[in-house]
Amino acid sequence: MNITPGKLWGLRRLADENGRFKMLAMDQTGPIVNPIKAALNVAHAPYHHIAAVKRLLGTYLAPKASAVLIDPPLGYSATVDGISARKGLLVATEWATWEVTKNGRKSQNIPGWNPGVIRKIGGDGVKVNLWFRADVSDDVKEHQLAYLNSVKRDCRENDIPFILEFLVYPFPDETQEAFNARRVELVAGSLADTDIMNPEGVDVYKLEPPTETVDVPDPDAPDAARIQKRFDDMAKGLGRPWVLLSAGSTPEDFLRLLTYAYRAGASGYLAGRAIWSKAFSNFPDMAAMEKALADQAPRIMDDLNALTDRMATPWRENRNWENSVTASPAGEDFAPRYADFARTGNLVA
User: Fold this and answer.
1) Confidence band (pLDDT; 50, 70, 90) for 64?
2) Distance of alpha carbon 216 from alpha carbon 184, whole angstroms
3) Which UniProt keywords apply (predicted)?
4) Considering 171, 265, 287, 314, which has the largest number of Cβ atoms within 10 A of its Cβ?
């Protein structure tokens, strides 16, 4: 598998020295903003509170991560100075900016932001959350495909890794209970869509668990085969390395979910709430929150990282790549060939 030099370097920056992803997510909006609004009994969460929370997440948890995922509107300015420059920097180009229709959500970039801007601020990778479920209307699917392809193109032009996340969601007229009952089915349906799941232009997939995320069965129990099959089926034919998100599960459940994922070939995790939700629940008591982030949350990451070290597949050894990932162009004519690629966007063999 040949990868252009910028993408290869970026992937190396996002992973640890052994090629395993231990990425901390702190780009969340709703899971941070909504509890702040509720705790303060206000309609809009003040920026200084959001920034203070995200700054603490970065200060205490980024040292345990191979890379951090942050959002430009609320996270970048608040956290970047407190994160070691030796950590990989993954930046979201979409945010809480999607359009809601009765037939599905339409993703879009943060106004004025794109992979080129992320490259300019020092990002090592671009993350997009593509809202998708297979039963959306044709116009919603067309929009999502067009948006997805535009990000793929921009990442190629800027030679920066593209980490693609899929999330299913409820329609406006669908109750949360009805959606929860169908979530596993909807995840499987999304992953079966060959248009959306075309790996061309994608470097890493960030996937949600294809099973329930509470009371997760012990992966070594006799009845675990049913759950393992869901992960194995999800991993078939992805064509790229993949990491697992926590979907707000508890640390204990996430460790079990990761075990299933690693047995299916996952290369790490990109998670937030499973790591820091309990500490964040102390808000607005910032002293108590900081104490929990200093004492408890790092131990959660230690457990996740130890499991990742033992079981995750290094991304270069993904079964689809057969451990043959190399930079292209390379060799004596690297300079002129890459100059041509930078000018045209086309890589001549």
Assistant:
1) very high
2) 13
3) Lyase, Plasmid
4) 265
